[in-house]
UniProtKB/TrEMBL annotation, chain A:
Protein's UniProt keywords contain Membrane: yes
Transmembrane spans: 97-117, 129-147, 154-173, 185-206, 227-251, 263-288, 300-322, 334-352, 373-394, 414-432, 444-466
Highest taxon of source: Bacteria
Protein name: DUF4153 domain-containing protein
Keywords: Membrane, Transmembrane, Transmembrane helix
Regions annotated as coiled coil: none
Organism name: Candidatus Wallbacteria bacterium HGW-Wallbacteria-1
NCBIfam families with a match to the protein in the record: perm_prefix_1
Record keyword Cell wall biogenesis/degradation present: no
From TrEMBL, chain B:
Name of the protein described by the UniProt record: PadR family transcriptional regulator
PANTHER family referenced in this protein's UniProt entry, alphabetically: DNA-BINDING PROTEIN YIZB-RELATED, PADR-FAMILY TRANSCRIPTIONAL REGULATOR
One family name in Pfam for this protein: PadR
Domain Transcription regulator PadR N-terminal: 16-87
Annotated organism of origin: Candidatus Wallbacteria bacterium HGW-Wallbacteria-1
Entry-linked Gene3D superfamilies: Winged helix-like DNA-binding domain superfamily/Winged helix DNA-binding domain
Domain of life: Bacteria
Length: 469, 112
């Protein structure tokens, strides 16, 4: 027996599942379907025939959905965390929100593990917390990505085991005064773990049958570029939410102070760690939620700061020419050089990600813009600054010998120099129209692996090499 | 005869606006009307009309209201606005130019 109502319900579920069609639109479409069926049954068709024909006349739902989503792009930003009137999407969103809240709590709980072993005081054991911080913060994000991307469980668990083994490593390694290898390790572990997140973000590069997946997977340059965007956006979100959290904490302490209750111990022991380690997963969730909805902020910031940083670099070079011995004698200056260079690389990455290079057609040639020249200028001046830094480092190396910090700085600056030079070559070839912009992006995304390997090196080998000092 | 997608898309707006200029109507009736006046030659997929209607509504050329029909079914009726009437006039004069040009090519300038 043909059950019309249940058939219509099924059809509605199917229409809803595309996501862009809301309840009002659905009611309109349903009323249309019923009108259409009425006419067909009047002509003598059975209910079932009329239903099938009416659905056929309605057309391909995918295409309709596409048309609908084109109109509603202006309204899309509202969908970010605003309840949608599409019931299936709404249910999925609720479930996801539940998982995210759970994972945020997990981050906080992880950060309480050291307390179980008697290392509860964050001020006394700050280096221990610093070493483990990226594990507490990124582990929930990894779980979330595995769930979100429905990755193959077995392989994901294998890669996920990097987290516990990393935790084991950093806590088994001793750290002696002056704790340089310990600090270096704390700074490089997040870089390494970002690569693990990249794996979960892109998914495996080979499928179950062992065939390589070229179009997707974590090795694909496009996936990596998207991951770079994802990290940048999450970072900005995390900062915004974190600032909000700090205001909230200040308000809470202040108010409890008025009624003579000292809330500070409770806040530092529970609220702050749960807030901080839950921050990253929440930021990641928000970015993934809105990814298709609005243009990202990181490329906008990159555009604002590219010309400004160019000025900073040029003034640095000029300052160095006027007072050349500064860079050699002051080790703090070298550290500042390195921070600026890292930011320059980030700027280049994000201006890259905002450039529309996808079209490989004839118009690609005319796409060379003012911004490309600006990026190129930035890279050139970064090469000069990096050379100055390297000469400073080698002076210090020859004067004081190899220490953990100096070796790390040497390695990083060398890798950076190679990267910047490759970018220079890429841009020149692009300006001469010998290669597309896509080629620069592919090169840069592949080069990211070098940073991953280097970070692993600093985390695993350096402490052994320099006697855990 | 099959009418290509681009032509359907381009002609949809003036046709829908002209239909609504006669009287308020709802999606299903508009589709049937189009089939009627084109002797079934312009077969739109039913579902594609709604994105067009929504676009016109957000452009302010039409507005909409819900009304119950005699058999108790709720229908969304569309009503043309002042801006819609102006827009319709412009579009139709554009189509007239194209139509006249084609006509002259086929029949010579004499009949003008």
């Amino acid at each position: 027996m043909f059950d019309l109502e249940s058939q219509i319900r099924q059809w509605k579920t199917h229409v809803y599942s595309t996501g862009s069609i809301g309840q009002n639109d659905m009611e309109e479409l349903e009323s249309h379907l019923r009108d259409s069926m009425d006419e067909l049954t009047d002509r003598g068709l059975s209910t079932e025939e009329a239903f099938l024909l009416a659905v056929r006349r309605m057309g391909d739902i995918e295409v309709i959905h596409e048309e609908f989503s084109k109109i509603s792009t202006e309204d899309l930003w509202r969908q970010l965390l605003v309840p949608t009137d599409n019931p299936i999407t709404a249910r999925r969103n609720r479930k996801e929100l539940g998982i995210v809240i759970g994972l945020a709590l997990l981050g906080g709980l992880l950060s309480k593990i050291p307390a179980l072993f008697g290392y509860g005081d964050m001020d006394v054991y700050s280096l221990l917390y610093l070493r483990n911080a990226s594990i507490f913060a990124f582990f929930p994000v990894a779980i979330y990505l595995i769930w979100k991307r429905s990755l193959p469980i077995l392989r994901s668990l294998l890669v996920l085991s990097i987290f516990p083994s990393g935790a084991l490593l950093v806590n088994v390694y001793p750290s002696y005064e002056p704790h340089h290898t310990g600090l270096l390790l704390s700074l490089h572990l997040p870089m390494l773990l970002l690569f693990v997140l990249l794996y979960f973000f892109g998914g495996p590069a080979i499928n179950r049958e062992g065939q390589p997946l070229y179009a997707t997977g974590w090795r694909n340059p496009n996936t990596r570029l998207n991951f770079v965007r994802f990290v940048g956006e999450s970072f900005i979100y995390a900062i915004l939410i974190g600032m909000g959290g700090m205001v909230l904490i200040a308000l809470t302490t202040g108010t409890f102070d008025l009624i003579k209750i000292d809330a500070f111990p409770f806040i530092t022991a529970w609220i702050a760690p749960f807030g901080f380690f839950g921050l990253f997963i929440v930021a990641a969730y928000l970015v993934i939620q809105k990814k298709n909805l609005i243009e990202s902020i990181a490329p906008v910031l990159a555009r604002i700061f590219t010309p400004l940083f160019l000025l900073v670099l040029i003034s640095l070079i000029v300052a160095f020419l006027i007072t050349p011995n500064q860079a050699y004698e002051n080790r703090n200056m070298l550290i500042w050089f390195d921070i600026i260079l890292a930011l320059v690389l980030a700027l280049t990455l994000y201006s890259m990600s905002s450039k529309d290079f996808s079209s490989n057609n004839a118009s690609a040639k005319s796409q060379i813009t003012f911004w490309d020249f600006l990026s190129f200028g930035l890279i050139i001046s970064a090469v000069i600054v990096d050379t100055i830094a390297l000469s400073g480092i080698s002076m210090r190396l020859s004067a004081y010998g190899f220490s953990a910090n100096r070796t790390a700085a040497l390695g990083e600056n060398l890798i950076l120099l190679v990267n910047l030079l490759l970018l220079c070559v890429g841009y020149v070839r692009y300006f001469l129209q010998r290669q597309t912009f896509q080629a620069i992006v592919v090169m840069q995304m592949r080069f990211l692996s070098v940073y991953g390997v280097w970070a692993a090196c600093v985390v695993i080998v350096f402490p052994l090499l320099f006697g855990f000092r | 005869m099959h009418i290509p997608k681009d032509l359907v898309a381009a002609s949809a707006t003036p046709i829908v606006l002209s239909i609504l200029q006669k009287e308020d109507s709802y999606g299903y009736a508009i589709i049937r009307k189009v089939q009627d006046i084109s002797d079934n030659q312009m077969a739109w997929t039913d579902g594609m009309l709604y994105p067009v209607l929504h676009r016109l509504e957000s452009a302010g050329f039409i507005d909409s209201y819900w009304k119950e029909s005699l058999n108790g079914r709720r229908r969304k009726y569309y009503h043309i606005t002042e801006a819609g009437i102006d827009e319709c006039e412009i579009l139709i004069s554009q189509w007239d130019i194209v139509h006249r040009a084609l006509h002259r090519l086929l029949h010579g300038k004499a009949d003008d």
